[in-house]
TrEMBL record:
Keyword Cell division: no
Presence of the UniProt keyword S-adenosyl-L-methionine in the record: no
Positions of the UniProt region annotated as Disordered: 1-23
Protein name: TetR/AcrR family transcriptional regulator
Domain of life: Bacteria
Xref: InterPro entries: Homeodomain-like_sf, HTH_TetR
All copies of domain HTH tetR-type, residue ranges: 23-83
Signal peptide: none
Pfam families in the cross-refs: TetR_N
Length: 225
């Protein structure tokens, strides 16, 4: 089921039906938002900055998006459409017991690569959700639930509350680590390590996560037999 941010938009904020030009302008604004967020060292993203990048006047942004949260949700919907191919598909087939660690590592590397590519957008999502914006919080929950459910099916048949709870705890840890290592201040967090050393450190963390995830899945499968 599509979230509110993924449903087709037919009218602007003052009730006018969107024609081809209006749809193109709206898409250009979303693309401008994503372009600005793709720069890890860029300045804070603002409505005026998005308007300048999209080559529209700031009031025109508000014609399509009432506030930054709605613009963020539109950008998130665009990015999350790529999550299936990026990492979710790796969870849709049961990982063989004999290849459990390798399967976990492949999935976690893909999940981290997605976070690294879209770090500023995902950090902005989390900041707005943690600040209490219910729209962004609901969206984050909506897009996280399929991942939790798919992870739970790796334990056994999935659907059981206990398995879902374990998957939720594991995913929280994965997301927290991704949040930390994609933080722009990560070099400071690691004591000013060189870039190559930072990459090696992240690889070690992902490999450690794979060990933990594989151990939990093996344990849950054994308990279910």
């Amino acid at each position: 089921m599509a979230t509110a941010a993924q449903r087709p938009i037919s009218h602007n904020q003052i009730g006018q039906k969107l024609g081809r030009k209006g749809q193109e302008t709206r898409e250009r604004i979303i693309s401008a938002m994503l372009h600005l967020l793709a720069d890890p060292d860029g300045p804070p993203v603002t409505v005026s900055g998005v308007a300048k990048e999209a080559q529209v006047r700031p009031p025109n942004v508000y014609l399509y998006f009432p506030d930054m949260a709605e613009l963020l949700l539109a950008a998130l919907a665009r990015v999350m459409d790529t999550a299936e191919e990026a990492y979710l598909a790796r969870l849709r087939q049961r990982w063989p017991d004999a290849e459990l660690h390798a399967s976990c590592l492949t999935f976690l590397r893909a999940h981290y690569a997605f976070w690294q590519k879209h770090a500023r957008l995902l950090h902005m999502r989390n900041a707005m959700a943690d600040d209490g914006d219910l729209r962004v919080l609901r969206y984050r929950n909506d897009v996280t639930k399929p991942l939790i459910d798919l992870l739970a099916t790796q334990f056994c048949s999935g659907g059981e509350l206990a398995e879902t709870n374990v998957a939720c705890v594991l995913l929280t840890g994965l997301e927290r680590m991704a949040t930390v290592v994609t933080n722009p201040q990560f070099r400071i967090i690691t004591g000013g390590a060189a870039e190559a050393d930072q990459r090696a450190y992240v690889r070690g963390l992902v490999e450690a996560e794979a060990e933990v995830l594989a151990a939990v899945i093996a344990s849950r499968r054994a308990a279910a037999r």
